[in-house]
Amino acid sequence: MNTDQQWLLYKCDQPLPALLLKALQQSYFKQVTDKHNANAFNLYWRFSGFSLTDHTNVQPWQLLNHFPKANAITRKDSLARSLKRMKTVHGSIYKFFPVSFNLPNDYTKFLSYYTKHRHQPGNDVWICKPSDLSRGRGIYLFSDISDLIYEGPTVVQSYISNPLLIGGYKFDLRLYVVVTSYHPLRIYIHQDGLVRFSTEKFNQSGIQNVFAHLTNTSINKYSPSYSLDKDKIGSGCKYEFW
Does residue 82 contact residue 131 with C-beta atoms inside 8 Å? Predict the structure, then answer.
């Protein structure tokens, strides 16, 4: 390392993962210590969002690792609300997401839609997702409204009956990006990504089988089929792509 390099300063609210620490050190960052003014930082890394005051007071040479109101797209209920708002404004270009309801606020609307459309093809299965949980926790499918049970903010969506499959298995793609600016919009996409598969073939007749309907690795690593050499996808359920 070049000892003549001018160091930058970062501060954080809790210990950082080893990979992030390595990236900061390679970029000539040192952590703010008691020797420094508390506001003498170039980067402030937090695991939760910043207050409006934090964003207002940040200086041109300082960066925060969260944008204001980022949870408008990072929480399931906020994302559903944002997408519906955009569909109202921009029309059919936003038809790519399924019919969605935020419970408990939209329960009456959901009940009306469910009653009206329940016997139509493609409207007989719903997926229920807790708004603020991750790794597939609390997600389940139902067709009878009597099976709908939720605690706290929840998103209920019409379940896609004909998803794109590989070898009969559901999958999702996970791309990693860094957004450095919204105005102008500036996004850097990492060259590598992940593809995650379900571990049992898609079959809508068995809606209680999470291994056929969810692609979360945290769920599928417990599947009896996890280690099997599955058609088209092999063993396991998560792979890198580039």
Answer: no
